[in-house]
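Protocol step 4 of 5: obtain the predicted structure for the target chain.
Materials: sequence only (see below). No template structures provided, no constraints applied. The aim of this step is simply to have a reference model before the mutagenesis design in step 5. Sequence pasted as it appears in the construct record:
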Amino acid sequence: MNAAGVLVSCNEAGNKIPRRCSGIRLSRNWVLTTGSILSSFLQESTDENLTYWKNVSDVTYEDHLIRIKDRPFMETRVTFSVIASNATNTANEITPTSKYLGFQEDTLIPVRNHQNKVMNSLAVAVDQPLSSDTHGKHKEFKSILKYAWRSQFVSHAVDTMLSSWVVGSISYIENESSIEKESEITKNLLSLFLLLKLQTDDDESSEVSEYSELMDILREMFEVEEEVLRRGQSVLVESTPFGNYYFHNSVSEGVVSNVFGPGRCLLLTDASTALGCEGGPISVTVQKDGKLKRRLVGMVVCSLSWWRGEWVGFTMGVALQPIVRRLLFPGAPVTSSPSLVPADTSPDQLAAVDECVVLVRCGVHWGSGVVVGSRDGIVLTCSHVVRHARNDQAQVYWNNRAYTASVLFRSRDGFAYDVAVLRTGPGATFRPVNVSSKVAVKGEPVIAAGFSLFSEDDNVRPTVTRGIVTLASNPMAMLQTTCCVQSGASGGALFRYTGDLVGLISCNIMDTSTGALFPRINMAVPASVLAQPLNDFLRSGDVTFLSGMESKDPEVQRLWKLQSTISKL
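Step 4 output (structure tokens):
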């Protein structure tokens, strides 16, 4: 699919400062972008904006294209332009650093501190005219909003699975009416998609021919139903952070962390984005004609969100194939959904993740766990996950089934290593993970898996994210990683790429002065310190061996208790 990223500018009548976001150039004349570009001026409570809001929030055109010409108020209220690169478009042919989860040596370079210079440019980015682009690297096209449609899949997913999320706000204050209003509007716009036509001097097409041209483009891209979106697969996001054309078509790499919603229409990726990246293309790498090429699979719809007061470090996107196919064939049943089998690891690796990572619930609280023994359903989790267990019992959810588990061991609060051991009893067909006794090393690539953000009610599989070990303490008390870790992941697994368990996710970092959480700075219990007592217990069945999971080393306890700014997940 020969699609490229562009910068979309939206001007409200009477407002000199435009709103900008990213977009996808589907062809020479057509651009797809997100309805969230309309959010800023819809937040102003004027009679005109309320009328416009009734037009854009109308659900009667779900999964049907509407002509904006048929909605005169929508046609005259805002104007658009598209800023594209003048460079030759080779976006579909790339030489990626790696198609696989991993890293290359000798790719690190020192980064100098230019923070003040960058922030000064950002302050004027939105209202900076394109004419200041003296190098001629970009060209601005006047554009007309021709069509819009609302995805029923996305609408339903937002209503049912994102009800406790706040989206689009740069800050979060509980019960703040302005933030709640902003989030409500932005959520409604997540399911709205806009199709812009670039105005060129030689364009003499009629409405009939342009509609036919557009539908042909969409069919060519999405008519063939292929399973191209896989959890764990490497993705590339191309977008323009902050709407500043100096950052035009910046790229960010990550993996598909999860897919969810009807038709698997929404996705999470750990690729980093910022405000202004909404509308940018999400691509995967495929091999075609002996070359590695990008294939368009999604679009960024939300770069900034909060869940129960916690900043979400993941980027949210839509999977374009299910929602565009629904547009092309509105009455067709959902015959398949994007595969959950990874392309970037061994064929069985993420399948093994799903078989050993479980959700652990105690009342209203939940976390994750890792199956380490199959005979009696032995599950390793964090001590703080089962702190509220009544009668030393917890519920374990796996593969849409619930099991009652007994708490066999739980380390004392605040003591290394924040570990608990549960037993579900025989009957479950868990596949245990191998607990590695090999010590993790700084720089080692890892994969984290757990039930971040979504509970058993949401019927999703474990969320995966990749990173590296940034610190391994000496003596071995904790591991620090760059994986994107959110609430619900406590007790989840930290895997080597061999599939061995190298750590147990415990917590992330909180700034006590501001209350801000940092999802990409997190701690894990080293599996190497748990392997011996756990193996002794599994071999003998003697619970007393589990006491070895609480360290007697005062130096380890000192290191552990230095985590005064650590927030439990």
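Step 4 remarks: The mean pLDDT is 81. The radius of gyration is 25 Å.
Proceed to step 5.
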